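WARN no homologs supplied; continuing
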Amino acid sequence: MTHRPPAGSATPARYLIVNADDFGQCRGINRGVIRAFERGLVTSASLMVRWPAAAEAADYARAHPRLSLGLHLDLGEWIYQDDSWRPRYEVVETDDREAVGAELDRQLTAFRRLTGRNPTHLDSHQHAHRSEPVGSLVLAIAAELGIPVRERSDRVRYCGAFYGQSGKGDPYPEGITGDAFRTILDGLPAGYTELGCHPGLEVEAGTGYRVERAHEVAVLCHPSTRAALDEAGIFLRSFHDLAG
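OK structure emitted
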């Protein structure tokens, strides 16, 4: 449910889009995203079209159009091991512009086939679009579609602080507590902010971020978290509200 700021309010409004990444990667992640959407604060999700549970996730999104749905471009996944980043898997070489462009087109086509519509936003698994040539290719597609790209849009800033691991993959449970969420709310600026999250329930083995997902669901669905949002005067929104 979204809320409208009071008419004539002198304080610049703060709007929060709570976006769940990895939708479609597996059934456990789908369950967590759906729970956090139906009972919690999630208003948006990003779909991984290459994975076995993508069709199930897309079917849910088609039946629940209030959930804005973006494309989570998947070029690979990397883990920090022996003092360096090593690939868990790679879809294409991320420095090969032609291969990345072709893969982006494939995944966008798959998104349209699965959902029957264009994505409301673009982002990427493990933020692959922070680097070139991925970033410029993603921005070009987004410009054609008129949609924002995570961290590259002046319409919405991105916050990735709600996360249960360090930058090198070490456990960081204090990052996904209710107190951590409230601290994030306290620091939100005026305008739109996208808060990334990674909910999941009974997630299958093989993902690098597993146990933490259930903790995220618990916080996102807890009544005190909703109360903190209301007390801070922050209004829930989705990427639908940024259309056009």
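The domain at 14-78+88-242 is CATH 3.20.20.370 (TIM Barrel).
OK
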